[in-house]
Amino acid sequence: MSDNQPSNQLEDGELSAVDLLRFTTAGSVDDGKSTLIGRLLYDSKNIFEDQLEAIETSSRSRGDENVNLALLTDGLKAEREQGITIDVAYRYFATPKRKFIIADTPGHIQYTRNMVTGASTANLAIILVDARKGVIEQTCRHSFIADLLRIQHVVVAVNKMDLVDYSEEVYEGIVARFKEFSSRLNNLVDVSFLPISALHGDNVVEKSANMDWYSGPTLLYHLESVYIGADHNHVQARFPVQWVIRPHSDEYHDFRGYAGRVAGGVFKPGDEVQVQPSGFASRIKSIHTADGELSEAFAPQSCSILLEDEIDISRGDMIVKPNNPPEQGQDIGAMVCWFGDQKMRVGGKYVLRHTTKEVKAIVRELSYKININTLHKIEDDQEFALNEIGCVQLRTSAPLYYDSYKDNRITGSFVLIDEQTNETVAAGMII
Questions:
Q1: Is residue 10, in this structure, part of any structural domain at all?
Q2: Per the omega criterion (within 30 degrees of 0), is the bond before 300 cis?
Q3: Residue 124, by phi and psi: left (phi above 0), alpha (psi -120 to 50) or beta?
Q4: For the residues of 97-131, what is the DSSP string, one character each?
Q5: Using the 8-state DSSP alphabet, how is residue 162 labeled?
Q6: Torsions phi, psi of 347, nearest 5?
Q7: How big, in percent rounded to 5, are the helix, strand and coil portions of the chain?
C-alpha cells in the first residue's frame, strides 16, 4: 500500500463506525427541500414522538391538509410564518449503514450566500426540480454553485411527480434538459437522477408503486451507498497548526504538541516534515488524540502532532512534507461569491482568513463576473454586488501557503472579513 493512502480505508461492503455523509439540499422556492428532509427523517424513523406531535399540532393550526414535514427544519419564526426557508438548518440522523448531516438551504435568490455556506462542507448535493416547472434559473444557479464548490456527487431529484400523474415523459424531458446544461460544467462527475414525491414518500425511503417504469434506487439507498472516500486529498500532506499545547503539569512537563485538523495527506511517526513559513525540518515523534496515540493521521482527523526537535511553531503555520510543498505567494487569483451588502470594488481592503492563518488583503482586480444562466463571462463590470460570483485578484500582506481549490478544498479556500463590521463578505476558491 502507498504511503500516501490511509491504511484503514473501507473495503468493499465494509462500513466504518465513523462513515459520515454531509449533504445539502438546493432548489427553487417551494420545490420541497424541507419537506424532503422531513420525509427522510420521518420514514427512516429518526423523529421522536414529541417532535411528531408538535408538527402535527402546528400543521392543524395552520390548516394544512397533511402533516407539514417541512416544519422539522424550518425553525425560525419568520420561516414558519412565511412558509419558506431563510436560514441554513442542520439536521443529524443515522441509519444502520451510515450517519448523515443535512444542510437545508434556502431557495430564494437573495439567500444564495446561505446556500454557499451550507454547501461548502458537503460531500453531496441534492438539487430539487419541480416536475411542473422543470429546469429553471435557480436550478442552473445551484448547479453552478455545486460545480464551483466541487461537490462531486449530485442527485437531481425531480419532485412533485404526483402532480404530473407520475409521468415518465415529463421526467425524461427534465433529465435531458439538465444534462444539456450540466455538460457545460466541469466538476459534476457523478450525477444521478431520481423521480420522487416528498409529500407522499415515493422513492424517498420506499420504492414507489406509482412509478414502476423507474428501476433505480431510492434516495435513501443512494445516500447510504454512495462512495465518498475519494473526496479527501490523501496525497498532499497539509496540517495547519491551530494551537500549541503546552500543559503546565508535572505529568506532561515536557509535552509540546501542535494541534489542528489534517487538511490533506497522511502523517505517520517517523515521517520527515517541514514547517512553513520558517522552512525548519524535523520528524514526527508521535501523534495524539483524546483517545490515545495514533499510528497515522489523515484528513479529516483532528489530532496533536509532536516533533523530535524544538521548533518555533505558532498558530497559522503549516506542517507539510518537504517533497510536496504547497504553493506560496501574496498574489492570489480566486473565484468568489460575494456576501456583503456593500459592493466589492477594486482597492477594497479586507481581512483574509485561510485555514488557521489571518492576513490583510486588498482587491487588485475584478477580472470578470459569471452570468449564472448562460455561464458567460462579464468583463466590463468593476463591482460585485450581493450574491454575485466571479474572478478576482488579491494581494495579501503576508505570503499564503495554499493549494488550488480543485486539489484541496480546505487549503484552497478562504473567507474575506470586513475590518469595520467583522462581517463575512465573501467566500473564495483559489484558482
A1: no
A2: yes
A3: beta
A4: S-EEEEEE---SGGGHHHHHHHHTT-SEEEEEEET
A5: G
A6: 95, -5
A7: 20, 35, 45
Name the domain count of the chain: 3
If asked whether residues 278 and 390 sit together in one domain, one would say: no
Decide: helix, strand or coil at residue 315.
Answer: coil
253 and 224 housed in the same domain = no
Hey, what's the torsion of the CAs at 286, 290, 292, 294, to 10 degrees? -50
Distance CA 280, CA 246 (A): 20
Domain stops at, among 298, 320, 342: 320
Q: Which residues are registered as beta bridge partners of 354?
A: 357
Structural domain harbouring 242:
238-320
**Residue 286 and residue 145 share a domain:** no
Same domain, 194 and 144: yes
The total of other beta-carbon atoms located within 10 Å of residue 11's CB is 7
Q: Give how far Cα 293 sits from Cα of 268, 269, 275, Å.
A: 11, 10, 22
CA dihedral of 157, 160, 162, 165, whole degrees rounded to 10 = -80
Q: Identify the DSSP state of 29.
A: T
Per-residue pLDDT of the chain (431 residues; tens, 9 = 90+): 444 555 444 333 333 434 889 999 888 777 777 788 888 888 887 775 666 666 667 656 666 656 556 665 544 334 344 444 445 678 888 899 999 998 877 655 555 677 787 778 889 999 999 999 999 888 888 888 889 888 889 999 999 999 999 999 999 999 999 999 888 888 887 899 999 999 899 999 999 999 999 999 999 999 999 988 666 788 899 999 999 998 776 666 678 899 999 999 999 999 999 999 999 999 999 999 988 999 999 988 999 999 999 899 999 999 999 999 999 999 999 999 998 889 999 999 999 999 999 999 999 999 999 987 778 899 988 889 988 899 999 999 999 999 999 999 999 999 999 999 999 999 999 99
Q: CA separation (Å) from 259 to 96, 283, 284, 411?
A: 32, 16, 13, 17
Distances (CA, A) of 395 to 344, 358, 386: 15, 13, 22
Does 13 reside within a domain?
Answer: no
Helix, strand or coil for residue 263? coil
Question: Which amino acid is present at 118?
Answer: G
Q: Do 143 and 112 form a contact (C-beta atoms < 8 A)?
A: no
